[in-house]
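If you are new to this repository, start here. Below is one unmodified record pulled from the training split, so you can see the exact layout before writing a loader.
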Amino acid sequence: MLQNELNEVSKNMEVIGMLKDFVGETVNSSLLDPDDCWQPTDFLPDLTKEDALDEIKKLRERTACIPDTVITSLVGNMITEEALPSYQTYFNLMVNEERELTSENGWVRWSRAWTAEENRHGDLLNKYLYLSGRCDMKEVEQTIHRLIYNGFNPNTNHDPYQAIVYTSFQERATKISHVNTGKLADKAGDNTLSRICKTIAGDEARHEKAYKTFMSKIFEIDPNGALHAFDQMMRKQIVMPAVLMVDGNKNPSIFTDFSAITQKIGVYTTWDYASIIDHLVALWKIDSLTGLKDGASKAQDYLCTLSARYKRIAERMKVPDDISLSWLSNKTRLAF
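And here is the target side for that same chain:
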């Protein structure tokens, strides 16, 4: 890393340190006590009861009506959630200067509490899909293993500001993905899965709001640095968390294929990407920032016109006619 970049990161870390008390208050106001949280078992058959097998049968009957594309999209969402160890490690490297995971520092408390809430998402979706019988769970488990094995690099250049921009964007993207999957599950007749997806989306919405608030505070304290980070992050594009879910030599393009399916069925699309840019630009009042240093006007122009570029891309995008993935139990070729 060049010296000027090191200096910038050091300066940004000072601001991050200034926010630790505010972040600690957000843990108390925005995240839930473990005793008050929903848990995966609230949505799953109770295997301690005599009618457990009947409940599993009902679950399988509901999921049998869900299209292969929706199941595949749900599997990809679940795999993304299951790579949580990589995300927590990354976040701690960005903001945890104490290198102490039991610290009462607001940022460290946030990392623990946020991770604890997120951990339920992968657990619930994994168990639900396992009971459904719709997936080749060995293939799914190998993909999860590979994704965590490969690590996670959102390309934020060790900059905590860019990390907060990334999480603000990504939490909103994840919320959208779960909401849209829930709608498709409901349409297919699985009201329980629909409720699961919408419940997870509710968690993501709370997390999204918190990260956006953290970034809003950074804009108040250091508008030049915040604008630069937002500009840099968007010029590199937001790398999806599951981008490294490559399955070795078996299917090195599995993430691309998964993304094509979510694009085709409307779970997460280029239109959504553009809408998130619009939302963040408006929320952080990018067009009306004043008192900025040289070069800021260029960044403002770029960010304020960026969503229009992605909308034009979305209008021209084409999706492959069919895609083959190994996550489904019947190894069916997915024909759109």
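Two things worth knowing about this chain: Residues 331-336 have pLDDT under 50 and may be disordered. The two ends are 45 Å apart (CA to CA).
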